[in-house]
Write a structure and sequence with these properties.
By secondary structure, the protein is an all-alpha fold. It contains 15 helices and no strands. Helix 2 packs parallel to helix 6 and helix 10 packs antiparallel against helix 13. The longest helix has 33 residues.
Amino acid sequence: MNFTVSHLLSPRVSTRTIHRGAVGALFFLQGLSFASWASRIPSIQQTLGLSDAELGGVLLALPAGLMLSLPIAGWLTTKIGSRKVATLAVGLYALTLLSLGFAQTTLQLMACLFVFGLVGNMANIAINTQAVGVEALYKRPIMASFHGLWSLAGFAGAMLGAVMIGAGIVPYQHFAAVLFFALAALAVASRYILPEDANTNSDQPIFAKPDRALLILGIIAFCAMICEGAMFDWSGIYFKKVILAEKAMVGAGYTAFMSTMALGRFIADWFATRYGLKRTLQLSGVLIASGLLTAVTFPYLGTAIVGFFLVGFGVSSVVPLVYSAAGKSTVLSPGVALAAVSTIGFLGFLIGPPLIGFVAGATSLRISFVIIAGMGLCVALMAGKVKTAE
């Protein structure tokens, strides 16, 4: 079946629904691959005999690969199109996942993680570029629902990992099953994703300096991803050392955060359509700040869980909506614009966890969470500077 730009602009619901389903499948496959790896980190740590400190050093290989790929991913997506990049990168991502299960030495694992991060971000930029194109067909926000599928895949991957561990399945066998499923699903989905990208300009440079509008979006993503990174890495520690939760409840904060982050992404599109991008981002920032301050001011199990629920809702919509706005840039093509904003935002993801550690070491964990709450307020304040067509 041959597609043209006119087909892509067709208002027929059936066509755009097929595209939406296919692109959503790519988000799910990427999320499933990442969650599958994350679920087996303890198993691989034990197999290789790594201490916590050694594991921390090994895990840095993944963000190193991701950071290297950020400018390249945007340029390559613009040059050859997101369809080719997404199809290839999602497939390679699942294949690299399998290689992680076969790693026999620390150096092998680091090399595989570096490629995992590099290919993973190539997939991230390409499938988000696809999502920008599908969103243009709907003429309303739908980006957050795509990211919701990624979060949903995270839950599925975590549950699958638990089943595999319980059944005594070793990581490479687990990852091989995920690879088989991913390649089969990709073979179908890749036939129905968009063949043409919206607002494409193949003459964009490989390294692009974002304009003021993109810089503001990048700062918003930076602040939100500091909060997100803090929740991923420090929520359990906060519940253990500050809340003094029983062992069975140490993960309650993380579970609360993840559940509302996933749920919030399926609500965010409706909310943004009704109330606009600025108001949605402003509310998101207020929810992040109020949730963290609730957990700090009232350091008890029930109130802390409620606080983390609020943080999850707040974080859920920020990155998807920022990506959606970046993809509509009139200065850069979607792939390059997304890469530029992602580069700024991801720095926050890297800075957040160690920042909490440094502040907690000098003062206390509660004070470090107050500082992270300030990042939520920054999201709300910077949202007022976002230029939209609303």
